[in-house]
Each structure stands twice: as structure tokens, then as C-alpha cells.
Design a protein that fits this description.
This protein is of the alpha+beta class. The protein is built from 5 helices and 10 strands; from the N terminus they run αααββαββββββββα.
Length: 234
């Protein structure tokens, strides 16, 4: 009986650990594949890495574009907020496990939602089911039930250009497919060509000069983005 209780004691933390490793392994292996081992040599490189980390939860599942965050698909905003928490890592001592699912409080999702999209839009909690997975919302518990399984992100972001203005930052972003892996003759992974380009606008938070939130996600002309790339090479 003691051995059985001991196995049960370790089952949930181990399950969460496996889940975290599945998520982290997939996300960071894709970053390794698409970018290689990154060694930031100047502040601009560090800034780009920070921006890529911020927008990864949004772009990874190829959301619909929006000219203003108030017009964005609420399911996709909630979905990316949950993924932001998962990518950062789950504290095994903080969350409960019910039926092999992590119980993620809605309040935690709301905090992340605000950090990503500001407070002008209020999150509307609902079950998220894009197809390959489901984040069930329990209105009674006011929490999301997250399955312990890994999910392949469709894209990872690569910042092509950063245009800083007074109250905003406009990012030109290439979508790199994690499914289009390419190897050279020596068996080394090569970054595949971008699948598409977008512009993501970050607005300065009215509450803090150092905080920015995602304001819009728009398609951009590939030829325009290519010209930026060529200019950066000169």
C-alpha cells in the first residue's frame, strides 16, 4: 500500500513535468532549427529576441489578422494567453491536476491577457477548441482544464525589422514553418524560407512607459519585407 501511495504521489508532478518538457522541447527545438544557437552580440539582437518571445504565443498557431485588438478573434486571444503561460513553464506546486488535466485559474489567464493585449479589451472566457487540442473552460471553477499533451506549433516568428516610434513599435515578422525543416549536405538544419510576412504593432501602455501591448496584426507585402532583408545585409 505504501508503494502504491508513493507512486500516486509522484504521478501528477511527473505528468506535469512530461507535459512541460513536451511543450518546451517542441518550442525551443523549433527555435534551434530555425535560428541555430543564438549568441546575442549587441542590444538590437537582444531586443529582437525579447520581441520574438513576446509574440510567439500569438503567431505560433497562425491567428487571423486584425487592425485593432478590439476586433481580434477572442478565442485566439485567449488561446495565445494560455500558451504564453505554458511556454513560460508550469509551477508543479501551484496548480491542481484533475483527470490528468492541469487546472489553470482564469485569473492567471487574465493577467497574461493584459500583459499581451493591454486592458482596453476584456477577456471573455470560453472553451478553446481550434481542432488539434481543447482547453476546456469550467465556468463553475472559473478555470481552464489543460490536457497533458504536446502540440506542434505551426509557426515561429523571426523579426526582420523593428521600427520604433514615439508611442509604438512596428515589427516586420517572418513566419517560419516548423514543419518545413531543411538539412544541408552535412545534416545540419537550415532555416526554411519564410511562409509569409506580417506587421505587428505594439503600443505603449498608458500606465507605463516601458510596457507595450500587441495592438494589431496585419499582412504585409512580401516584396517590401524582402527589400528590408536585403537592406539589412548591406
Amino acid at each position: 500500500m505504501k508503494d502504491k501511495n508513493l507512486r500516486k504521489k509522484w504521478a501528477y508532478p511527473l505528468g506535469i513535468f512530461v507535459f512541460i518538457m513536451a511543450i518546451v522541447g517542441i518550442i525551443f527545438s523549433l527555435f534551434f532549427i530555425t535560428k541555430g544557437i543564438i549568441k546575442a552580440t549587441d542590444k538590437s539582437d537582444i531586443t529582437k529576441k525579447n520581441y520574438e518571445k513576446m509574440i510567439l504565443p500569438l503567431v505560433m498557431n497562425d491567428p487571423s489578422t486584425f487592425d485593432d485588438v478590439s476586433k481580434a478573434d477572442m478565442q485566439q486571444l485567449i488561446d495565445s494567453s494560455i500558451w504564453s503561460i505554458l511556454i513560460e513553464g508550469i509551477d508543479t506546486g501551484k496548480y491542481k491536476i484533475v483527470d490528468n488535466r492541469i487546472v489553470l485559474p482564469a485569473t492567471d489567464v487574465e493577467k497574461t491577457f493584459v500583459s499581451l493585449y493591454g486592458d482596453s479589451v476584456k477577456p471573455k472566457h470560453q472553451t478553446i477548441a481550434p481542432g488539434s487540442y481543447e482547453f476546456e473552460y469550467d465556468s463553475t471553477a472559473k478555470a481552464y482544464k489543460i490536457p497533458i499533451t504536446g502540440v506542434d506549433p505551426i509557426y515561429t516568428p523571426k523579426i526582420i525589422d523593428v521600427d520604433k516610434k514615439k508611442n509604438s513599435v512596428i515589427l516586420t515578422v517572418a513566419y517560419i514553418s516548423g514543419r518545413d525543416t531543411i538539412m544541408d549536405e552535412n545534416g545540419n538544419f537550415i532555416e526554411p524560407p519564410p511562409s509569409k510576412y506580417v506587421k505587428i504593432t505594439l503600443r505603449k501602455s498608458p500606465k507605463s512607459d516601458s510596457d507595450f501591448y500587441i495592438s494589431s496584426l496585419q499582412d504585409t507585402d512580401p516584396s517590401f519585407s524582402d527589400s528590408i532583408v536585403e537592406e539589412k545585409k548591406k
